Amino acid sequence: MKSTKILDSISRSSGDAQSPKTGSWRRIAPSYENRLSPCTLLCPCAENIPIWMHLVREKKFEEAWRELIKENPFPLICGRVCYRFCEAQCNRKEQGERVSINAVERFLGQYAVEHGLTTTPYTGEKNGLRVAIIGGGPSGLSAAHFLARSGFAVSIYDSHAELGGMLRYGIPEYRLPKELLARELGAMVTSLGIELHMNAHIDTTFEQVASEYDFVVVSVGAHRSRALLDDHGREFPFMSGLQFLSRVADKSMTTLPPDTHHICVIGGGNTAIDVARSAKRLGAAIVTVIYRRTEEDMPAHKDEIEAAKKEGVQFMFLTIPVWSYFDMLFRVRLECMAVQGEPEGGKKLPPVRIPNSQFGIDCDMVLSAIGEEVDLDFLGSRDHTFTSEDDVRGGRIYSSGDALYGPRSVSEAIASGKKVAEAIIARVSGSAKEPRPAALGDGDVKFYYLNKRRKNPEILNERSLTAEELRSFAETTFTITSEQAVEEADRCINCGSCIACDRCLDFCPDFSITKQDGVYVIDLDMCKGCGLCAQVCERGAIVFGKEQGDVNT
Ligand code: SF4
Ligand code: SF4
Ligand code: SF4
Which residue in 230, 373, 456, 508 is deepest, having the highest Cβ count within 10 Å? Predict the structure, then answer.
C-alpha cells in the first residue's frame, strides 16, 4: 500500500503487488508519485509552483496564495524583486516560451494585499518558547513567520525605524513601493502576533537580550559599505551607495544638491545599479558607473544592467579610481587608471594597471558601492563564524541570511530564514522535515499533449516609462490582471504534480484505476503493467517501478 498526497487527494495502490490476478507476466507496476519540477528545484524558497499555478488556472486565487506562502511568505515582494531563478529551466522554455512565474506570483501577492488576506495564525497550544530575531530584513522576517506559525513567541529587534531592512532601505521605490512593502509585512506581523522592537540598537545589550529568550537568531543584513581606499591608503571621501539609497528611501534626500549634473558610481553590483538609476531619477543629467572588470564580470543582475542602460546610465569598464580632489569650483576630479584583467584558467585575476593610462573625470558627486558587509561586532567575544542555518553557537544562537553568508538575493535571504526556523523547530520537536521528493527525469513530461491554445508567448510585465515617470520613482513593471494570470497559469504543465485531471483513470484499458471520494486507487490485482496511465500523464506524476520479486530483473 502506497499513499501520496496530491492536491486534496490521497492516491494509493491496492491489491497484492507480488501476485496479480491477471497473470504473473507483469514486470513493472505503477504508482502515483509527485516529483520536483525544475522551477521548484531552482526557486531558493522551493515554492510548490506547479500546484499554485494549477489553483490560479482554476481561479482559486486565495487558495493559490495560501499554497504559495507555505514556502515563501512574501510573494508581493518576491514578485517584484526576485531574479526569477525558477524560470531559467522552465519546461515551457523550448515549447512556446517559459511561464512568467514571477509575474503570476506578484499577482497573487497583490491579490492578497488588496483582499485583506492574512496568514492563518497558529491555532494549537503554544510551546511556551521565546525567540528573539536580531534584524527585521527579509531573512529575519521569514524566520519569524515560520516560527510564529509553529507555536513560538517571536520578537524582532531592528535598529531602523521601519521594518524591512534592505527591502526598505536598500531597494529603490521604482522596484518595490514602500507602501506595498509595509502592507505585506504588516499583514504578516499583525496576524501572527509578532512583537516588534524598532530603533533597537543591539550592541552592549546583546547578552541581556540573549538571556531573556530561549533562542536567538542573528539575521542582520549587510548594511555596512566596504571602504574604498585611494593610492595613499586613505579612504575616499565619498558618500556610500547604501547611505545614498537609505537617504532617498527615508526621504531625507528628495533632490540632488544644486548644480549636480554628473554623478559617478563606483562598483559593479546590484547596489551600484540601484544607486545609478536612483541618481538619474533625482535629476542627474549624466550618471557613469565605473567598474574595474568587464560587463560580463559584473555581479549585478543582467536585467538591471539592461534597464540602467535603457535609462541612459553610462558604463566605464576596466577602470579603477586612484585618487581624487576638489577643484576651485568644488567639483570632484576623480583620477582613474585603465586596467586589464584577463581571466586565467577560468579564474578572475585581480585587475592590473596599464602603465601611463591615468586620466581624470570631472564630476559633481561620487558614490561608492563596491560591496557591503555585515557588522557583527555586537556579538562581542562570541564566535561570529556561523557555517549553516543549523550551526548553533552557545547552544541556542543561530544565524541566517546575510549574517550567515554575506549579501545575496532577497529570495535567498527568505529561504535562509525558513531554514533556520526549520532547524529550531526540528530541535524542539526532535523530528526533521520530510525529505523532498525526487526530481523529474528527462522525458517524464509529455510535450506532445501541449495544445495550440497553450502555446501563447509568455506574458511580460515591463512598462515603458515616460520621461516624467522616470523622474518620479514610478514602478518600472506592472501587476498583471487576473485574466492574464489565469492565461499564464494555463500554459504551465504542472510538471511532476498530479492535478486530478482523470486522464489516467479514463485511459486505463483494464479499469484498474478508480476514484473513490476524490482519491485515485490503482487495483494492482487487475493492472497488467501496460504503462498507458504513465504515458497519458502529461506531467509525469505516475512512475513505473520494477515489480517486487521480479526474478527476471
Ligand atoms: S521566489 Fe523567485 S525563484 Fe521563487 S518562485 Fe518566486 S520568482 Fe521564482
Ligand atoms: S511548465 Fe510550470 S511546472 Fe513546469 S517548469 Fe514551467 S512553471 Fe514549472
Ligand atoms: S493523468 Fe491526471 S489524474 Fe492521472 S496522475 Fe496524471 S495528472 Fe493525475
Answer: 508
